[in-house]
């Protein structure tokens, strides 16, 4: 039986992308797990699967992919075309993303542009590249957005606005690709127990108006206030799959 093919972006260990890739693998799909640094994508180990899944697991391939690089996208597309033997791509998951935290009044425009390059323009670039393969297979695009894009939350305005843009791009793709037989799903993810908060910190200028509440802002950027609401990452991934 020929396995369906899925490509997931942003699959570094500890993130939702890796959890999604494992869940697709457990479901018996041929998984292309991609990341800018492929050495950060571990192989799915035996203990990630239930006894039933161990009898019918999928195939696992790790590919380097920088969603902001035209040459990287071109190379990845060629690899997928070759490895799928002309069958197309059944599922594309746009998960790659980043975040910065802190008051907008102190936001670095360079860092903000970098976040948009990955979260927004990266999603657009990846989807554009793989549309022909998705049309061929009458596949599905899953775009990982966030409820943060629908609710204005202080101290994470750059990230929130990028996710709002993701939602609108995704919903527009949904309308435009439907006549071509491609479904588009916008996943409005809530608070998930990932390592994203461990990657970022907030350091404000000494003269900042917000200096008196810097510890509060730092705790929020580290996810301290939503810990009680975090959903287990593997459960979220299984639900999405």
From TrEMBL:
Keywords: NADP, Oxidoreductase. Gene3D superfamilies: NAD(P)-binding Rossmann-like Domain. One of its GO terms (molecular function) is triacylglycerol lipase activity. GO terms for cellular component: endoplasmic reticulum; lipid droplet. Residues 4-193 form the Ketoreductase domain. The keyword Heme does not apply. GO terms for biological process: phosphatidic acid biosynthetic process; triglyceride catabolic process. Pfam families: adh_short. CDD domains: 17beta-HSD-like_SDR_c. The keyword Ribosomal protein does not apply. Residues 46-56 have a biased composition (Basic and acidic residues). InterPro entries: KR_dom, NAD(P)-bd_dom_sf, Sc_DH/Rdtase_CS, SDR_fam. Residues 37-56 are annotated as: Disordered. Coiled coil: none annotated. Belongs to the short-chain dehydrogenases/reductases (SDR) family. This is Ketoreductase domain-containing protein. The lineage of its organism: Eukaryota, Fungi, Dikarya, Ascomycota, Pezizomycotina.
């Amino acid at each position: 039986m020929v396995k369906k093919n899925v490509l997931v972006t942003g699959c570094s260990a500890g993130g939702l992308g890796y959890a999604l890739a494992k869940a697709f693998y457990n479901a018996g799909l041929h998984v292309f797990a991609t990341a800018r640094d492929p050495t950060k994508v571990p192989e799915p180990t035996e203990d990630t699967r239930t006894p039933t899944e161990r009898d019918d697991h999928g195939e696992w391939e790790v590919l380097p992919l920088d969603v902001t690089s035209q040459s990287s996208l071109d190379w990845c597309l060629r690899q997928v075309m070759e490895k799928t033997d002309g069958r197309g791509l059944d599922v594309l998951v746009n998960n790659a993303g980043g975040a910065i935290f802190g008051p907008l009044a102190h936001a670095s425009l360079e860092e903000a542009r970098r976040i948009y390059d990955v979260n927004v323009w990266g999603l657009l670039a990846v989807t554009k590249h793989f549309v022909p393969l998705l049309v061929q297979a009458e596949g599905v695009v899953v775009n990982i957005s966030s409820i943060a894009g629908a609710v204005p939350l202080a101290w994470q305005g750059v990230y929130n606005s990028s996710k709002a843009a993701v939602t609108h791009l995704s919903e527009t793709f949904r309308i435009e690709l439907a006549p071509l037989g491609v479904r588009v799903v916008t996943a409005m993810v809530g608070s998930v127990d990932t390592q994203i908060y461990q990657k970022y910190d907030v350091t404000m200028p000494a003269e900042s108006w917000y200096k008196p509440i810097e510890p509060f802002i730092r705790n929020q950027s580290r996810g301290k206030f939503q810990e009680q609401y975090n959903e287990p990452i593997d459960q979220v991934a299984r639900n999405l799959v």
